Amino acid sequence: MSASYRIAVLVGSLRKGSYNRKAAMAMKTLAPPELALEIVEIGDLPLYSEDLEGEGKTAPEAWTRFREAVRGSDGVLFFTPEYNRSVPGGLKNAIDVGSRPYGKSAWSGKPGGVVSVSPSAIGGFGANHALRQSMVFLDVPMMQQPEAYVGGAAKLFPDSGELESDDTKKFFTGIITAYAAWVAKFAKK
Predict the structure, then answer these.
(1) pLDDT digits over 128-187, tens only?
(2) From CA 135, how far away is CA 186, in angstroms rounded?
(3) Angle between helices 166-186 and 19-30 (to 10 degrees)
């Protein structure tokens, strides 16, 4: 059986051993069958500048690939660490790239969700809320409950990188199940 909804997954951390990437991969294995989670890479996106595609210029290939991946999805799910009480620069750049050219945002109407994962105790609370603020402006209906702030990430993913905590698996399953219902409610089909 094929999935009903394609979900673009954006991982805000570019670090190879990112806890957020590990969380995204764990969530992918726990997702209900109606969701197909696909990581959309953001590390190769040139910094957004209107000069790169204005006045008859062709947008950089990486921007076009990224925009098409987001447009082709039925929803977006973000996994982000917190940098200085906000989202990492690479993720903010991806948001900007997807929002342009003006009037052709790839984000508009996509049901969204955010999971913030951090080694700190507060689990990326600031980044989670900063991301929500941008998404509201971009017409992305963000899942409000349950909220997903995952602290103590260094202890959740041992050397294998696999999520071993049954309590965290249960929490992640609750998040992705609620997100599937959110997508079914808001996705444009």
Answers:
(1) 999 999 999 999 999 999 999 998 888 888 777 788 889 999 999 999 999 999 999 998
(2) 15
(3) 70
Dig out the tokens for 151 from the structure.
Answer: 């602290």
CB atoms within 10 A of CB 125: 17
CB 183 within 8 A of CB 35: yes
62 neighbors 46 (Cβ within 8 angstroms): yes
Q: Which amino acid is at 93?
A: N
Tokens representing 98? 């997807």
What element of type H or E holds 56?
Answer: none
64: tokens are 């076009």
Q: Which amino acid is at 91?
A: L
Measured distance CA(185)–CA(111) in Å, rounded? 9
pLDDT tens sequence across 60-118: 999 999 999 999 999 999 999 989 999 999 999 999 999 999 899 999 999 999 999 98
Residue listed under structure tokens 């990326």:
124
Distance CA 86, CA 106 (A): 22
